[in-house]
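Record type: monomer structure entry
Structure origin: computed from sequence
Chain ID: A
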Amino acid sequence: MTHPYPETLTTAVAEAPEGQPLSPEHATTGGLAHAPLLTALLASSALAACGGGGGDSAPGAGTPGTPAPSTPSLGDYAHPSATTDNEAARFLLQAQFSASTAEIAALRATNYAGWLDSQFSAGPSQGGWDWLNQRGYADVSNDTAYYDNSYPADYMIWYQLMKSPDGLRKRVALALSEICVVSTNGVDINWRCHAMAWYWDQLVNNAFGNYRSVLENVTLNAAMGYYLNTRGNQKENATTGRQPDENYAREVMQLMSIGLVELNSDGTPKKDGAGKPVDSYTMNDVTNLARVFTGYDYDQSQNVPITVPGTTRVVPNTTYTRLPMALNASRHSTLAATFLGTTIPANTPGAAALKTALDTLFNHPNVGPFIGKQLIQRLVTSNPSPGYVARVAAAFNNNGAGVRGDLRAVVKAILLDDEARSPAGLTQPAFGKLREPMLRLVQWGRTFGINSAQGSWKIGDLSDLGSRLGQSPLRSPSVFNFFRPGYVPPSTALATAGAVAPEFQLVNESSVGGYLNYMQGVIRNGIYVNAPELPNNASTSNNGYDIKASYTNELAIAADADALVVRINLLMCAGQLSAATVKLIADALKATPVTTASTDAVKLDRVAAAVFLVMASAEYLVQK
């Protein structure tokens, strides 16, 4: 399919298919069903965003392979604190999911580093595993069959993202979930929802920890064991010709630690004498490393088999899904394993072999720039300069106290860096990133007081391109995430400039129309839920819009269209909408009179229209 991409990040969104019809089932009453208005807005946003050539590089970007600037010490930054509400909101929207007026005020009362330290010192909020149990999803019943269903995992993760108070921790965990991928789509085991919840909880618990712990937890996690075939992986058998499964060995190198090519400390590829990138590992490395990951299976030592009432079926309890996989020494390969310059001698016990393997991966010089750059891409910008990557990699290599892999130091280095904080990025066409659809929905919910009237939180799989978001957390279509970190929109100026735009791999004619249709209805009416009074899938007379935004502060100023747009611009866009776009939206709102005496429904129509038009604009969709 040919994608509708133009020259810069911002105009790429504006010129996506703006003429997609809004389907009747998603049309709403009041001020939202304005397809011509939407078209005019997107066209105006495109014009406003066109200043500057599409081939510009990110601030500070240099020629690949050039030496990176010297790395400043942690805290040595040109922009240590927010001097305006817009600057505060910009930081918060990179660091977490939303920027409320209270959060902006709290940030402005301190500095960026102080705010980060306060987030680091706060413990994690309720985890996904405990939430599932609290909602009754560990109950054994033939009617609900939670042990066979994955939909509670969707409810769990959306609730975690929408309502957890520890936004920075959850934001970093979500970024890690897109590097170390396990997809609910590919986990077909008993209590799969609990398995996914524990996978998520481990990422959350490690978000401010050490990346070495991330690698170990991911490797031994039951959901990952099923997803990438380490569960039940057995040693070689010369008689039958069986060889260890190589899936996890390949992906833990390619995706979760060192990447495909040798890297300089600034993330640029090392090249051989012919100018070609140098491979970071060989097929022989994969084959040898695979031996280390043999002999592991679910730990059923605490299993209490349960007979499903009214049937003869027996299911395990949930405990095994959160225990590290256990080693069966008789199934573990005893051959020597040589990979990445390390040799594990023959007959090395499995636990010792695993430690050596993970230490080898963790200490590879690629890990800092490879993982650091991807975290920059998830939080700040798709095309960080080599210098930016080098500074983050340096923080990964040494947190200032001789510790390698400290994610607190990495997160600080990413969010405090001059390239992230400098206002220069606001005018660089290639700086920033496309907001992922799932992040847009979470930002909307957290910004405008989303709540579930009956506590259902039944937000399901929103992956469908044509009718929903085209993305849903923990629902990646493959281990390669929703998009590749090196994705280049074809036949664009971005491609000519050698720039990447990972999130644009989600963009096509269907996803653009699907997003607009879905958000139009959700913003105005909320999310429709079947049987909100029940945790399980059902249909009752209570079916309805159980999950809604409150818009308390927005409804209070609904009669003042200009003030309303200014507020939404700050909270959703960190004040980055152009004057032309602000005027276009405000003028459109004024076409339908609203006064302080108007009905609540009329006021809600205006608020919803304002939010929708902002969230449809190119200047919102590209986060600077």
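Annotation 1: The CA atoms of residues 66 and 386 lie 8 Å apart.
Annotation 2: The first strand starts at residue 296 and ends at 297.
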